[in-house]
Amino acid sequence: MSRVITIGAAQLGPIARDESRSEVVERLVGLLDQAARAGCDVVAFPEMALTTFFPRWFTPEVDGHDHYFEKSMPNPEVRPLFDEARRLGVGFSLGYAELTPDGHRYNTTILVERDGRIVGKYRKVHIPGHDEDEPWRPFQHLERRYFEESSEGFHVWRAFDGLVGLATCNDRRWPETYREMGLQGVELILIGYNTPMFYAPDPGQNALQGFHNHLVMQAGAYQNGTWVVGVAKGGIEEGVESLAQSAIIAPSGQIVAQAVTTGDELITARADLDWCDHYKTTLFNFDRYRRLDQYKRITTQRGVILPEAREPGPEPA
Ligand code: CDT
């Protein structure tokens, strides 16, 4: 049986502060319709795809942005997206801010199959930014104020005739993210992101945002023999410019499709999931070549511990 599927990445342009869920869902449905016409089996939408990226604003109370959170999924405003997906037979991943019944806030992404069922839910593990007001910044990145770090880890689900995993924005910069899923045999990782072009702690990195974005995802794809989709909410949102450059990356690490605009744009690629085995059974045959006993620091040590300083001694003979 062929395991060639068509993947879409539905990049979004900005979502305004006062744009309603229904207006946004209409945009998502439009992209889903486009994806169906392009023959897509699955479409990735960005991180926090239902609202503006609200962690750029400080509120004195942590619940100050709760109106941007979803209390259930699918809720009545998002229902049309699920209905359209089922009608078209196109699955999707969707990022949103989740407020649980017991009051936890997560930066969440779900995976929805072609019949409209939620088959996977991932809560962001690596939460970047800060948790207190830092008015010296031109805008803030208060994800650590409004979201908890998930301790549920990285999952891989059997979906779309393959093995599919999810990650969210900052997760893509960490090699552990891909390897956790690589060790579950992942064949397709869907990643949504909101990446401001301006990085206040070190503006020297601004010009490299696009390079770093592709660098990490291409490396993650190649080193784990998996397809990777990175999909942006790009453009200038409420005065803050965010990276676009959504991309679909093959297990070779090569970019096979890339967005050319900074707005709503669908890109697609035909992806042979069996192609992953070219890498999983050769250079990255984990079972054969990995050296567990040599990697102990990775799960036992969080920060850097420098080697002890030594007095300069004689050169080794
Ligand atoms: N949304 C998200 O995780 N954005 C981060 C910005 C880091 S700067 C605080 C990213 O890694 O792209």
User: What is the CATH homology-level superfamily?
Assistant: Carbon-nitrogen hydrolase
The average pLDDT value, as a whole number, equals 97
When the domains are counted, the total is 1
The radius of gyration is 20 Å
CATH class: Alpha Beta
Largest sheet: 6 strands, mixed
CATH topology grouping: Nitrilase/N-carbamoyl-D-aminoacid amidohydrolase
Task: Give the class from helix and strand content and strand pairing.
Answer: alpha/beta
> So, CATH architecture?
4-Layer Sandwich
β-strand number? 14
Instruction: Specify the number of helices.
Output: 8
Distance between the termini: 61 Å
Question: Uncertain regions: pLDDT < 50 for 5+ in a row?
Answer: none
Output the helix-strand order.
Answer: EHEHEEEHEEHEHEEEEEEHHH
At a glance:
This protein is 21% helix and 25% strand. It is α/β, with parallel strands linked by helices and 317 residues long.
Walk me through what this model shows.
The chain starts with a strand and ends in a 17-residue tail after the last helix. It is globular, with a radius of gyration of 20 Å. It has a single domain, classed as Nitrilase/N-carbamoyl-D-aminoacid amidohydrolase (4-Layer Sandwich). The strands form 3 sheets. The chain has a 6-stranded mixed beta sheet with strand order 5-4-3-2-1-14, covered by helices on one side. Helices cover about 20% and strands about 25% of the residues. Helix 1 runs parallel beside helix 2 and helix 4 packs parallel to helix 5. It is an alpha/beta fold and about 325 residues long.
